[in-house]
Write a structure and sequence with these properties.
By secondary structure, the chain is an alpha/beta fold. The chain has 9 helices and 13 strands. The longest helix is centred in the C-terminal third of the chain and has 16 residues, at about 280-295.
């Protein structure tokens, strides 16, 4: 029986992973009593006793936990930002060509950021297939449900006396400094970060990542983009290229809430929008973490996922 420990199981991502794994018959969850959750020795013992350990912690705490692991057999899956551009860790986006094989062998996996997952799913294939140049100047708008902000933000949005400003979408990271930007640049092979506009809106879960392009920015005809995506993701279970048009001309950011797939669509002609939709708590967080665990364990990749 595979032993799994969640370091930081009280946070939003940790709780969701715990809920998802509770019904798995092939796993046993190692748990610490509340009084020992922050005890370094208890955590060290649990981390080294586990076959797989999820780090669902702030960056500094995740680095500390990683330093406690001396077992060569423990697979660490870090859901924080701490190790996403660290060359000693494997970036946990299996759908990037060549990445799945690395993840099957890795003992240090950095789970992607939610916004980054959408951007990378759209841009990495176009860079790889030379449809876009690495020095292209891009912008990206990403809509997310408030669950992506963690327990504090969830409490703010669901409070009886919530601030009226929360009734409308809110742009944030106004300084153009966002923790997902480094992985977006590195994993896509870009020379410059995009202008990035994340927006949190008053719905619980779901994400819509939008990258606008002029056809003149492309090295290929814009009409070929759906085929490029379809070919790149041809054998993937969790990424699906869908026809344009959406839901009667609309595309809801919450359409895939509760599922672990990611949909890609291409809209427009001379002016193009590339769109990735998924659940920020699914393919954007806990679903991706479980997918990476499944790969490391050698079990079917979609085990325990909702597709």
């Amino acid at each position: 029986m595979t032993k799994v420990f969640i370091d930081g199981s009280a946070g939003t991502t940790g709780l969701r992973i715990r809920e998802r794994l509770a019904s798995r018959k092939d796993l046993v969850l190692l748990e610490l009593p509340d009084m020992l959750r922050k005890d370094p020795e208890a955590r060290k013992d649990a981390l080294n006793s586990a076959d797989v350990a999820f780090l669902c912690l702030p960056d500094d705490a995740a680095r500390e936990s990683a330093s406690l692991v001396s077992s060569g057999s423990t697979v660490l899956i870090d859901t924080s930002t701490a190790h996403r551009t660290d060359s000693a860790w494997t970036y946990g986006f299996p759908e990037l060509h060549g990445q799945r094989e690395k993840l099957r062998e890795s003992r240090r996996i950095a789970n992607p950021g939610c916004h980054a997952s959408g951007f990378i799913s759209l841009i990495a294939p176009l860079i790889a297939e030379k449809a876009l140049s690495p020095d292209v100047l891009l912008s990206c708008t990403s809509l997310t449900g408030y669950s992506g902000g963690g327990r504090k933000m969830i409490a703010e949005y669901e409070g009886a006396d919530r601030n009226p400003l929360l009734e409308a979408p809110r742009l944030y990271s106004l300084s153009q400094v966002h923790k997902h930007l480094p992985e977006m640049v590195v994993c896509c092979g870009l020379s410059q970060a995009p202008v990035f506009c994340p927006v949190v809106a008053p719905y619980y879960a779901g994400m819509e990542v939008i990258v606008p392009l002029h056809a003149s920015q492309l090295n290929v005809e814009g009409s070929l983009l759906p085929d490029i995506y379809a070919d790149y993701y041809r054998d993937e279970q969790l990424i699906r290229v869908v026809p344009s048009g959406g839901e009667a001309g609309f595309l809801s950011a919450s359409a895939l809430a509760g599922r672990d797939i990611l949909q890609i669509s291409v809209e427009g002609g001379e002016r193009i929008t590339l769109i990735a939709r998924f659940d920020n708590l699914g393919k954007g967080a806990s679903g991706a973490a479980i997918q990476n665990m499944n790969l490391a364990l050698g079990v079917p990749e979609d085990t325990g996922l909702v597709i």
